[in-house]
Amino acid sequence: MNNKKQIFLPGLNKQFDFLKKNLSVSPKFVLVIGSGSETAATLISNHFSCDIELIVQDYESLMNSKIILGNNSNIKVSLMNFEVTDFDSESFDLIYAQASISLLNRNKIIKELKRILSPGGYICLGEIVSLEKNVPSFVKDIFEAAGLLPLFIDELEKYYTERMLVMVSLQNFSDTLYEYYTQYTSQLKSSKYDLTDSEKSYYKKILNKISHESNSYLKLGGDKFIGFVSLLLQKGQN
Questions:
Q1: Overall number of domains in the chain
Q2: Would residue 197 count as lying in a domain?
Q3: Contact in structure between 195 and 68 (CB atoms under 8 Å)
Q4: What phi and psi values does residue 26 have, to the nearest 5 degrees?
Q5: Who contacts 228 (Cβ-Cβ below 8 Å, separation ≥6)?
């Protein structure tokens, strides 16, 4: 029986499996980025036997992460701006972000991630991508509402290599989005009765957002325009 915990982010557990398959070293100093990344952080910590720094950008996500992680002493969660963190340069040998940096300020975030990544270190990213250069209005509305600025899938590798990151591996996991939207919506609906008032307020926002995205993706043909790709990149030694 597979008892591995489920990651409820675009890409589901496929990005974590992708990381295990393609990362040939055992990182010791790891940063995980983004709300909803508690399970991913736990799986990475357990697999590589390392401590994790987890950062989120809003107070509600911070409180929710602390509740989920409980007394897990291997994962420290903090509130930080992704494009201006508190970490020293070259602090991490692995940075992991699953569907959390496909944002309007991606350029500044990537610059910051390169600063805090050690020479020879790795970045494992999951990017929400556009499968077509020109997308219909309802897809643009999804991206705008979520504050996303997805790259066109065919330009993804070029974007990162132009920023002096070496492509180690890339895999298209767009086929996971259907399962993600159906599973996550079901999960939130079934669990909302067991939540505290503050948790209900937090999850209501997420549920409303996911419900809108799910309806557009599943019923309006969003699968033709919205994709998800995982990448493993390495910073040069110099």
A1: 1
A2: no
A3: no
A4: -110, 105
A5: 10, 11, 99, 126, 127, 128, 129, 172, 173, 174, 176, 177
pTM for the structure as a whole: 0.91
Short-list 123, 79, 118, 64, CA closest to 98: 123
Please provide the DSSP assignment of 108-152 as one string: HHHHHHHHHEEEEEEEEEEEEEESSSS--HHHHHHHHHTTB-PEE
Tokens of 131: 């499968």
Q: How far apart are CA 130 and CA 149, in angstroms?
A: 9
The letter for the amino acid at 76 is K
The pLDDT tens digits of the residues spanning 145-164 come to 888 999 999 999 999 999 99
Place of tokens 């909302």: 192
Q: Which domain holds residue 124?
A: 14-134+147-174+224-235
| φ/ψ of residue 165, rounded to 5 | -110, 135
CATH number reported for the structural domain that contains residue 37 in this entry: 3.40.50.150
Q: Residue 47 corresponds to which tokens in the numbers above?
A: 């697999």
- For residue 103, pLDDT over 70 is answered with yes
Q: Are residues 133 and 22 in contact, defined by beta-carbon separation less than 8 angstroms?
A: no
Query: Residue 172, CB half-sphere, CA atoms under 13 Å: how many?
Result: 12
Give the Cα separation of 65 and 60 in Å (integer).
9
